[in-house]
Amino acid sequence: MEEFPCEVIRNFSIIAHIDHGKSTLADRLLELTGTIETKSTGLNQQVLDKLKVERERGITGGPSIVMDLLRFAAQSVFQNDLLTKLSMIHMAHGKQHLLNLIDTPGHVDFAWEVSRSLAACQGALLLVDASQGVQAQSISVFHIAKERGLKIIPVLTKIDLPASQPERMAAQLQSTFGIDPSEILHISAKTGQGVEAVLRAIVDRIPPPSGNINSPLKAFMFDSLYDRYRGVISLVSIQDGIIQKGDKIASCHTRKKYEITEVGVMHPEEVPTSSLQPGQVGYIACNMKESSEAHIGDTFHRVGALVDPMPGFQPSKAMVYAGVFPVDSNDFIKLEESIKRARFHIRFSLTLTDRSVTIQRESSTALGQGCRLGFLGTLHMDVFRQRLEDEYDANIIITAPTVPYKIIYKDKTVMISNPTEFPDTSDTSCRVKQVQEPVVNASIIVPEEYMGEMMNLCFAHRAENLDHRYLDSGSTSEASARAILTCTLPLSEIVTDFFDQLKSRSSGYASFDYEDGGYKASDLAKMVFLLNGKPVDALALIVHRSAQHEVGKKWVKKLHKVIPRQLFEVPIQAAVGKKIIARETLSAMRADVTAGLYGGHYERKMKHLENQKESKRKMKRIGSVDLPQDAFFDILSTKSN
Ligand SMILES: Nc1nc2c(ncn2[C@@H]2O[C@H](COP(=O)(O)OP(=O)(O)OP(=O)(O)O)[C@@H](O)[C@H]2O)c(=O)[nH]1
């Protein structure tokens, strides 16, 4: 592939709320520039099926069909999934331009990944569905792009839809982001209307990357992947200088030295080039053996020519944790493998890095050996869980999600991510000074008639600092005004069913987004459930004291409903510290399942015994109480809390 000087290069991203049509627009741009063929192949369906989970949730990491297709093609053909960036060539003003589309995950859980990708861009298309208008995530991604100083090209899409209201939405973009309506492009990515103008705007409005080919090499690593044969492949954006095969480079972060074995760009698959120059975004392969050597946000320089490193990033931290256990403890190794495979797939489909899901072994007296997984957010966890359950047919139990708490003692601070580790704060000898929980700054956008409902929902989830303002005045008779409601919420309150309730109580109209709001002191306690006097560690919860009686009562009722009767009476209790705060009693039942069957019914008797054996196999024995797998599912199902 020919070399492109800096001034004809444009590095951009598409930022949008989920489902606003990012993938469709990317497909159109790739088609218009001849990067891919216009006609989709029958393969697409196959690929879509493979990515069922992400499809169902309506999220993809990038230009859907193209990306997915290439990801899978690349996996099988080249054993390489370096596809978070695509290059297109476009003729404008009599010159060929190289347009690099850099993929972003575009979801609130992955804010860090979004800024990581945007760091390699000079501009972004802010894509807004003209029938839906500005949504919560449009706002958060806009701010990230703005903070990074990117040129933003506002684009209203889906104008072919009868429900689209481009004029009204343009006014909304103006009032929300201060965008001049004359700068807004009106397109339909589906029919292709106006998409040419998008290519023109990318060339005309986004500045070329700056950089000097004669300065010392400075290459910024914004992503990395592992290739079985070539080791770590890094995606880099060249800030200054030039990089080519045979060059000896070093990492600013680890000081380790490497020799470049290959450089190239994605067009759309890997195309080796003789060099990468300032402004170019491409891949480099060097003799980097371990993923642990690759640090996202690292800067490479030529050996012997030190440069100031680019500002790096704070990698994202796991914010939601859950335990995963095999129903049959012999399956632990199999489960661990499934988890690793699921992690691999999620990483590609959501454009995440290797370390996006943290895994630690965990053992529970109730559930045996398992893993404690850490996720970036609830969506991340849900997608992962669904993939484990669906695609790997994993016979697993997943515990209720929890968030990391800060326990401040007189002499130290400890972070805990498992309720079983939570200290008994009512015990005066435990020396806990304060307990803090993570909070988020949440924003919800809804039509005004749902405001009351949304406020109630927020208050029921311990919201503070509630505020609201209007985004527009609902200029047409059929469209009501939309408002943005902001508040702080404890993260633990949104990891269960908050999102589902938000959707159902707003008839699907509310959009929700949040950002990290730090830690806040809170009056929390550990709630333990006892079956026949024995605590079940896997069921332990952390509750706000104001809700402990309500939560305790609800859970013992739920346990009472799902635990089958045993041969003896079983008290089911909820305790906080030493205090029992709720109780139900499960009455005893008869033992012999065949007792009612008299002589001559040998086959029936055997069948009953077989059935009993089968259901015993699926039981978890908690102390002396048998709990069927289904009961655990029911108890731990977050949706029915
Ligand atoms: N009518 C119409 N539909 C469109 C247009 N652009 C996208 N769509 C449809 O909108 C839906 C979402 O489009 P996608 O391109 O998958 O959206 P996305 O933003 O990539 O979604 P995620 O990657 O899952 O976040 C699909 O059903 C598209 O067919 C458009 O211009 N007009």
TrEMBL record:
Reactions the enzyme catalyzes: GTP + H2O = GDP + phosphate + H(+)
Do the record's keywords include Membrane?
yes
Provide the primary localization.
mitochondrion
Q: Provide the topology term for how it sits in the membrane.
A: Peripheral membrane protein
Chain sites annotated for binding GTP: 16-23, 103-107, 157-160
Q: Any idea where this protein resides?
A: Mitochondrion inner membrane
Q: Which family does it belong to?
A: Belongs to the GTP-binding elongation factor family. LepA subfamily.
- Role according to the record: Promotes mitochondrial protein synthesis. May act as a fidelity factor of the translation reaction, by catalyzing a one-codon backward translocation of tRNAs on improperly translocated ribosomes. Binds to mitochondrial ribosomes in a GTP-dependent manner.
Name of the protein described by the UniProt record: P-loop containing nucleoside triphosphate hydrolase protein
